[in-house]
């Protein structure tokens, strides 16, 4: 599973409909798209939500973002993420141009 950081913005209409039931609906959508929610946070700043999710791949994460927007009126920016230890290991080796 790949980790994705998803930041979301409520549409004006979606703000009026915030509820625990909609949170349950979001969990179901992510599950149906093959994903798992690791953690979610309300931020209410430049973005309204921050979610850490795991999906089998990019296409699953994109599908979930579209379905969440379609069903709940929350638009997401989605980016893959790797743990810092993996990042350090990845960038500490020079790129082999002979490949």
Describe the structure.
The structure is a single chain. The protein is α+β, with helices and mostly antiparallel strands. It has a domain at 8-76. 40% of the residues lie in helices and 31% in strands. β2 and β3 form a beta hairpin. The chain is elongated and about 55 Å long. The mean pLDDT is 91.
Keywords:
99 residues, 31% strand, alpha+beta, 4 helices, 4-stranded antiparallel sheet, 4 strands
What's the SSE pattern? EHHEEHEH
Low-confidence stretches: none
- Separate helix tally: 4
| Strand line-up across the major sheet | 2-3-1-4
Distance between the termini: 26 Å
Give the overall shape, derived from the CA principal axes.
elongated
Based on CA atoms alone, the radius of gyration comes out at 16 Å
Helix content, binned percent: 40-55%
Question: Can you count the beta strands?
Answer: 4
Largest sheet: 4 strands, antiparallel
What are the SSEs and their pairings?
Elements: E1 2-10, H1 12-15, H2 20-32, E2 36-42, E3 49-55, H3 58-72, E4 74-81, H4 84-91
Antiparallel strand pairs: 1-3, 1-4, 2-3
TL;DR of this structure?
This protein is an alpha+beta fold and 99 residues long. It contains 4 helices and 4 strands, in the order E-H-H-E-E-H-E-H.
